[in-house]
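Worked Example 4.2. Read the sequence first, then its structure tokens.
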Amino acid sequence: MAKMKKRRLSWKASHSSQVVGYKLYWSVGGGVGYNSNCVRLNNVTEVVLPDDVASFTPANGPIEFGITAIDELGNESDMVTLYAPYQFSVPETPQDLKMETMKEFFAFQEPEPAAEDAEAVTSATEENEPPARKLQFV
């Protein structure tokens, strides 16, 4: 499953006492209007997209949003709009992930041990053992 950044869309509440909720409109590429995709919201002043709006489908390209206040009879206020220049989409998935075995390798030596490890190095040196090496394939 892809991972997409969420966006919080917020507005100031209408001062009208008849308001019972809001209606959120959106249009990919701009040109939002009363015929655009929409969803009726409760009496809230913010939504997190895409989580809070099940019918909102993330899309490529910028999106224009509109919000209206709704009264108890279903009448709507004028629409206030916001043009969002960011995308609500994820990049295309990378393809052909693979791993190859290489014939060449190189070795590198461990860094000098810390003071608390000095005793371990001393005992290894006393036994004339070469320092440990790790192999790393390239």
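Now turn to a second chain, presented in exactly the same format:
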Amino acid sequence: MSLTIDHDYDTALIEGLRHPRPDIAETCAWVLGQRRTRCAVPALIAVLHERPNEVDVQAAAVIALGRIGDPGAFPALVEAAQSGPVRVRRAALRALTDLDPARARPILHTIAEFDPSSGVREEARRLLGGEDTQ
């Protein structure tokens, strides 16, 4: 199935990332990811800084960034993997792995060993395929 390009729709979704209602912003991020809207990458990255207390919105933005697959999102995803809330860090690890498995590997190793959350460490180990992190 091919998605059609509708710039007005994409623009409305990008603007929706700034909506005061978190559920609307989260849905907009999810749809942008599903549509793989590359022009939304800067706005999705901005969500990570502009909505620090909205974990669901941040997680949706991280997932969308991974799904879109723009290499320019890699640094923002690394930052989210290292300093976001637990749910966001786990989603960022998956997004990094989807985006560039080779570049993600050293980050996963570090997080698998040193992250304060056992759930995040376990997710990093799972994404590494169970290889030894020592």
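Notes for the reader: The two ends are 43 Å apart (CA to CA). The mean pLDDT is 93.
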